[in-house]
Amino acid sequence: MARTALKINGHQHVVDVDPDCPLLYVLRDTLGLNNPRFGCGLGQCGACTVLIDNRAIRSCILPASRAVGREIVTIEGLATAGGPHPVQRAFIDEQAFQCGYCLNGWVLTAKALLDKTPQPTERQVLSACQSLICRCGSHTRIFAAIKRVSNESSKRA
Amino acid sequence: MAKRQSPQTGLSRREFIRDAGGLVIGFSMLDAALAPQLLAQSAASTMPGAVPPSPAKLESWLHILPDGGVQIFTGKLEIGMGVDTAFTQIVAEELDVSPSRVKFVLGDTATTTDQGGVGGSTSISLGSRPLRNVSAAARAALVQRASQQLGVPVDQLQVTDGVISGRTDASKRVTYGELAAAIAAEHDLKVSGAGFALNVEGTAKPKDPSTYTVVGTSVPRVDMTPKILGVYQYITDVRVPGMLHGRMIRPAGVGATLVSVDESAATTISGYVKTVVEKNFVGVVCETEWAAVKAAKTVKVTWSAPLQAFPEQKDLYSYMRTAKPKSTRQIPKTGDVDAALTTAAKKIEARYDTPFQSHATMGPGCGVADVRTDGITTVWSGGQKPHALQKGYAQLLGVATDRVRVVWMQDAGSYGRPGFEDAGADAVLLSKAVGKPVRVQWMRHDMTAWGAKGPACVYDLTAAIDAQGNVTGVRFVSRAFSGGEILYLPDAAGNYLGAQLAGIKNTTGVDEFAEWSGAAPPYRFPSLDASAHVLAGFHEVASPLRSTHLRDPEGPATSFAVESFIDELAAAAGIDPLELRLKHIEEPRAKAALTAAAEKAGWDKRVSPKKNTTGDVVTGRGIALGTRNGTYVGTIAEVQVNRKTGEVKVTRLVCSHDCGLIINPDALKSTIAANLVQSLGRTMKEEVLFDRSNVTSVDWSTYRVARAADVPPAVDIVLINRPDLPPGGAGEPSSRPTAAAIANAVFDATGARVRQMPLTPENVKAALSRT
Asked: In this prediction, what percent of chain A has a pLDDT beyond 90?
């Protein structure tokens, strides 16, 4: 076990964990941050996605020790006092999901993509999303939500 | 919020609910952060010997709260399709309150009536009836009471968002909240039916649908914002004080038995508690989830060699055609098919094969059990049938049903009987063994490899066509593993994988057939001979290929066979496939669904396959009809096929959908769109792989489902609203015709008939090479 300092959603946490322990279990069990979800433990589906330095990362295969000194953001850290993050707003407006268990992967991958590429091409969206799974099949609404954010940003540009 | 301290016994149901109010009254965003702690406390307040709520009492279903809120208690659930939002609209409509006032308790055996859980796309068609009726009864009682209190005749009163006032004198007013105590008096209701069909009626008549203002509108889903903001609580988020974590260790294959367990290496893992062994049931319990994951890999377990119980995968379908059936069902014959075949100008024969498929829910099954030493047990589960689980878990523990409370919470998707039920049973067995609450979440391979499967089905179809191109007779023979080998109603201990491993026999399985009448649209032919055979499972104890309900059980498979075959008949008769369908169907709603899809798609009316195609990449269109319990779906697929590689890209899906009265158009469209994508994945990719002893589909690379690139660039949904008809089901019907629509489009493009699901490049290439 090792004392590990993690910065999550802007707050510093010091936890005593096995250095090999994937970040997912630290977030869920040690810190009670429930949104990153266990889907496969293999990095294949994206249910456990968090943002690390604004990149969408699979927390089920990332040892907690490798997240030290980096900015970790989970979906509950996206909204501000002013309301939902614009990407969350778009997913809400599209009523994007069915069961929603997968949504950390889609929403956070979309945020990372749209921050970097505010008006992604269809190909860029597919490429960013290809390693994510939504077992219920909510894809058409998810793509519509991403398009909605992209359209908003083109109006502002 | 209500005070949390509660005496352990002696509470009336009303007091219990009041006490539990903040915890079970939905998960508003405010409550959500508190929910795990509240849930924990609810375990302590489970009442020994609690009497389940009687459906005959209004208060079992509906409470008016002093703040004017409406609390509904229902044994129905929300598994991702917006059913609780639709219920909210139905209740708000009848009571004349805004939907935001209505909150639900779903599927808690201590506080909700047994409505059979959910299944068969019946939550709205059947499950909403008692909610509509109790809401109408409550409104009538409230208005009656207001009339007495205000001295205004009932017909002179109006209700606006829970405020009852005089039509002519608005100063005469009283709110639902102010009358809350009065309505608490018990009203008797007339009860009929049971399970899904349970209904209750008061004396008040529900509203005329033509007056609806809330039903029929696209109210945003009540769960969507909390989910996207990250404040919604799933089953996986339940935490009980002192809770430990379990992980399972499964046998080396079908029929393997335990030889030895050596836990010494695991004892050095920080937080390791115990390895629990009961016959072939093996699980580890640790203080943290990560420790349990590690321990399950570290404990050395030796198994006997597994049985070679399964055929080689490549021989599955020939095995199914030659194995002696366990049982057979023949539907009454129409006409004389043999005579029709003897005199036929053309005789068409075709065989269709469909594989085992997996629920493969996004999250592996999860259950939390608190088996207390005094015999009082609480289990949190995402299973679709909480009241059946209550009975099954009680049987597993050897206690009376009323000693067990099952609290439903949403798990990842569901799609039938996915294995959440088994994960809960694992948690029960581990909790009983360690005397502490235990949370089990399966690993990916536990879910994909060891969860019960949707059955493989094969079909042999024969038809006679006369010289005028009329279909004069059809013979249908199916052979399938039973959709009920593991009964969808998990109300007995032997239903669960862990219990079977621990030595409890599965005694409640049933023979469920892949029947013509179950999934074939309402075609009328001069003669029809349809029979269905069920095959025995490969091994009767804890087989990873045991079969059960998977979304629209047998429906997509039977529809793939029948609706492909209808297309073959159209091609053989030289008729446009839509025209042939319309010719042999009488039901106007089925015809209208097909026609609506064709209009939207701009159906290219002609005989298939397309003539004079050139180049490697060709395009085509196909149509199929789906009917299920009074819902009618017409689906048209447009595809691009690479004749060299066998790759199929579905470029467009058009789906018309008639489920009677529509409650919430946007939520309905969302569910249909998701059904289309999921069923596209089942059509193109999903197949459980296995060797002689094991399922080898263990993760997302060995069990492939629809991904972003598979999604058609165009998905068009046409809703057909029938306000004059009662609302029907929408959870499954649009899953049904997708496979045949796609296969028919591939035929149209290439002239190759793919008769084996999934439509992988290999299977398509094999069909092309036969052309």
From this structure: 96
